[in-house]
Amino acid sequence: SAVISQKPSRDICQRGTSLTIQCQVDSQVTMMFWYRQQPGQSLTLIATANQGSEATYESGFVIDKFPISRPNLTFSTLTVSNMSPEDSSIYLCSVHLGHWDTQYFGPGTRLTVL
Amino acid sequence: AQKVTQAQTEISVVEKEDVTLDCVYETRDTTYYLFWYKQPPSGELVFLIRRNSFDEQNEISGRYSWNFQKSTSSFNFTITASQVVDSAVYFCALTNTGGFKTIFGAGTRLFVKA
Fold first, then answer.
1. DSSP secondary-structure letter at A58?
2. Residue of A4, A41, A43, A61 to mutate, testing the B interface (most B Cβ within 10 Å of its Cβ)
3. Helix, strand or coil, per DSSP, at residue A86
4. Of the candidates A42, A100, A102, which has its C-beta nearest B107's C-beta?
5. Which residues of chain B have pLDDT under 50?
6. pLDDT tens column, A6-61
C-alpha cells in the first residue's frame, strides 16, 4: 500500500489569493492525480501529473487556475489560484501504486474561501 | 464514454438492518476495474474493494458483500447487520486500463440510526 500525506490539512483563505497544496508519497510513482470534491458532491479529476512533463488537465480545468508541479517521483503540488468561494472544496491527491488497478488517496485538503 | 450511476442519494436504516447500495456502470472497455470506497465524516477515502472485469465471483468480507453482474453492468454492495459506524458516504468507481482515470459515482449517503 501507499502512505500519502497532504499539507495543509485545511485552510481558510481570502478571495483573490492563492494556495499551494503539497502531496507526498512514501514510494516512487509515475503518475499522481489531483481530484476536487465540492461540498456534497462526488470526486472530479482535475489533472494527471507525470514527473518530467506537463500535467494533463481534464475538461473544465486549466493550468492558469490550477498550476501543478511534479519535481520528482514522490512529490507534487497543486496551486489553486485567484480563489473564489466556488473553489471551496476538498482537494485530494491520489496515486496508482504497482499495478494500475489499485488507487490510493491522500487525506485531503479542506479549503474554504471567504 | 464511461459513467457510474448511484441512483440512491441517501439511505436511512435502523441498526442491524441489512442495506444494499446500488451501482450501475457504463464502459466500452472490455478490461476495467470497479471499486467501492467509504468516506466517513472525517473526509478521508477508505478503499473497500476492487473487482476486475474478468472476475464475476461475488465476495464477502465480514459484514460486507459485493455482487458483480456484467450482464446488467452492476456492482452492488450489501452491508449486513448495519452499525452506526457504517454511517458514511459510499462511492462506486470505475477505472479503465488505458488512461488510469477513475470515474466516480455521485455517492450514496448512508445513515444508520441506533
1. P
2. A43
3. helix
4. A42
5. none
6. 999 999 999 999 999 999 999 898 889 999 999 989 999 999 998 888 899 999 99
In A2-99, DSSP assigns E strands to 4-7, 10-13, 19-25, 31-37, 43-50, 56-57, 68-72, 75-80, 89-96
Which chain A residues are within 8 Å of B33, Cβ to Cβ? 101
Q: What percent of chain B is helix, strand and coil (3-state, nearest 5)?
A: 5, 55, 40
| Interface contact B47-A110, CB threshold 8 A | no
Q: How far is A17 from chain B (nearest CA, A)?
A: 24
Q: Is the CB of B105 inside 8 Å of chain A's CB atoms?
A: yes
The predicted pLDDT at position B52 comes to 86
- Report the amino acid identity of residue A62: V
Residue A16, all three cell numbers: 483573490
Give the H or E element holding residue A96.
strand A89-96
More confident residue, A42 or A2: A42
Task: Tell me the pLDDT tens digit for each residue of B37-70.
Answer: 999 988 889 889 888 888 888 888 899 999 999 9
Q: Which of B14, B59, B15 is nearest to B36 (CA)?
A: B59
How do strand A43-50 and strand B74-79 relate by DSSP bridges?
unpaired
CA dist list (Å): B64 to A36, A113, B18, B20, B99 = 28, 38, 10, 10, 30
